Amino acid sequence: MDTIVRWSAAKGIGRITSRLTSALADEVLSYVLEPFSPGEGDGSWHGGCLALAELARRGLLLPISFPKVVTVVVKLGPHSVGSHVRDAAAYVCWAFGRAYYHTDMKEILGQLAPHLLTVAFYDREVNCRRAAAAAFQENVGRQGNYPYGIDIVNAADYFSLASRVNSYLHVAVGIAQYEGYLYPFVEELMYKIYHWKRHNIHCDFTSYKFSLVGKLVVQPRIRALVGGGSCVRS
Question: Do residues 130 and 121 make contact, with C-beta atoms less than 8 angstroms apart?
Answer without folding.
Answer: no
